[in-house]
Amino acid sequence: MRFVLAALCLLTGCVGSGGAPDQADDSANPADGSLEVADALQGSDAESRGDATLDAGGSGDVSAPFDEAGAVTECVGASVPPSTLLCTGLYADIVSKTLAPGVRPYLPAIPLWSDGAQKARWIQLPPGTRIDATNPNEWTFPIGTKVWKEFSRNGKRIETRLFQKIDNGPPPYWVHATYAWNADESEALASGGGDIALDADAGTYHIPTFSECEQCHNGRIDHVLGFEQISLGLAGAQGLTLAQLASEALVAPVPSQTSLTIGDDGTGAASAAIGWIHINCGVTCHNANSTATAYGVGMRLRLDPSLLDGRPLTASNADPLRTTIGVPAVAPGWVQPVHWTRIVPGDPSHSLLVELISNRGKDNAVGGQMPPIATSIVDTADVARVVAWVAAMAPALDGGADATTETNVDAETDALTGSPGD
Question: Quick check: 284 and 366 in contact, CB under 8 A?
Answer without folding.
Answer: no
